[in-house]
């Protein structure tokens, strides 16, 4: 179905771009096989109007012209739909080159590499890449993408399509089905998060991709909730992932372990017997991070953080 629609849209775009005069709906119907197979006139009219709106949403400028006989015609002038010349300075080219190296995922890496080749063929300047020299050969900027849910969610965010997936909270033994309007994907501390509108709970929620089980299924229909701006969504993910600290937590950490925690600590005190005491910023999501360090961490205070960590460890033990 998706391939058939894409082919129909492509054929309609080619007809509108290839004509020197406006074409009527009757002429377009006779020129595109999918329209001839539409059945009755009402089905064709609905299909044509949807296709025309889709092409306009994709950026094609379609003009509506009325001829002397009063008939309506359509065309897409090439000069109105021609992209301006791409001009990038050396710094902009370097930024694009660095961004193209970030992705480890094979399909994204191929698309990024192909885009760079086209830009260079169009005259984009070759930029000095600080990561290409021998002194930087051990460094490679990357964003890891291991979750199978990443690609379908990325496409759903781009196309503004609702999705359904099974999600297992850290404190739950079994996953639950969630119906979500996906807004954006964000990466924090090497983990990917999806921010969106949970239809069942009628509230915005943040989901960690590693806790999504099974396949992500797309659903038809438009979003019900308004999508906030990118900055607001990013602040939501940042807060949920524990980057925004509102108070301080006191933990015991095994000596020689937990270096990321030590880097965030405001104070460190040796306790002896192979343990240190750390005061670290405490925000939402810290319990999930502490669980990753297993038996090397013991929460001393506050009590609610200690209880959350214990609940998460019990859920992990139950499988």
Mean pLDDT, to the nearest integer, reads 80
Number of strands: 12
Low-confidence stretches: 130-139
Strand content: 15-25%
Main sheet summary? 5 strands, antiparallel
Q: Give the strand order of the largest sheet, numbering strands 1, 2, ... along the chain.
A: 7-6-5-4-8
- Give the H and E element order: HEHHHEEHHHEEEEEHEHEEHEH
Q: Output the structural class.
A: alpha+beta
Shape: elongated
Over the alpha carbons, how many angstroms does the gyration radius reach? 27 Å
Detailed description of the structure:
It is a single chain. The two termini are 40 Å apart. The chain is α+β, with helices and mostly antiparallel strands and 319 residues long. Strands 7-6-5-4-8 form a five-stranded antiparallel β-sheet. A four-stranded antiparallel β-sheet has the order 10-11-9-12. About 3% of the residues have low confidence. The chain has eleven helices and twelve strands.
Which key terms come to mind for this protein?
24% strand; four-stranded antiparallel beta sheet; 319 residues; alpha+beta; 11 helices; five-stranded antiparallel beta sheet; 12 strands
């Amino acid at each position: 179905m998706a391939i058939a629609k894409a082919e129909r849209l492509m054929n309609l775009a080619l007809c509108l771009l290839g004509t020197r005069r406006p074409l009527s709906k009757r002429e377009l119907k006779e020129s595109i096989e999918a329209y001839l197979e539409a059945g009755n006139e009402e089905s064709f009219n609905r299909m044509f109007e949807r296709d025309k709106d889709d092409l306009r949403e994709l950026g094609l400028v379609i003009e509506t012209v009325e001829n002397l006989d009063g008939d309506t015609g359509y065309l897409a002038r090439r000069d109105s739909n021609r992209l301006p010349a791409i001009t990038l300075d050396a710094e902009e080219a370097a930024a694009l080159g660095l961004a193209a190296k970030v992705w480890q995922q094979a399909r994204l890496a191929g698309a990024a590499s192909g885009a760079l080749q086209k830009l260079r063929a169009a005259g984009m300047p070759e930029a000095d890449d600080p990561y290409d020299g021998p002194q930087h050969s051990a460094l490679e900027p990357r964003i890891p993408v291991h979750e199978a849910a990443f690609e379908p969610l990325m496409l759903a965010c781009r196309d503004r399509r609702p999705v359904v997936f099974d999600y297992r909270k850290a404190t739950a033994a079994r996953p639950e089905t969630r119906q979500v309007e996906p807004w954006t994907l964000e990466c924090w501390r090497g983990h990917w998060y999806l921010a969106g509108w949970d239809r069942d709970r009628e509230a915005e929620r943040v989901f960690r991709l590693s806790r999504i089980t099974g396949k992500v299924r797309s659903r038809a229909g438009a979003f019900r909730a308004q999508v906030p701006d990118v900055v607001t969504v990013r602040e939501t993910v940042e807060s949920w992932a524990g980057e925004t600290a509102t108070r301080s937590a006191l933990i015991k950490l095994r000596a020689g372990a937990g270096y990321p925690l030590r880097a965030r600590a405001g104070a460190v005190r040796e306790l002896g017997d192979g343990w240190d005491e750390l005061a670290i910023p405490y925000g939402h999501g810290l319990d999930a991070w502490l669980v990753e360090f297993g038996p090397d961490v013991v929460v001393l205070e506050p009590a609610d953080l200690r209880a959350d960590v214990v609940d998460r460890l019990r859920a992990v033990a139950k499988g």
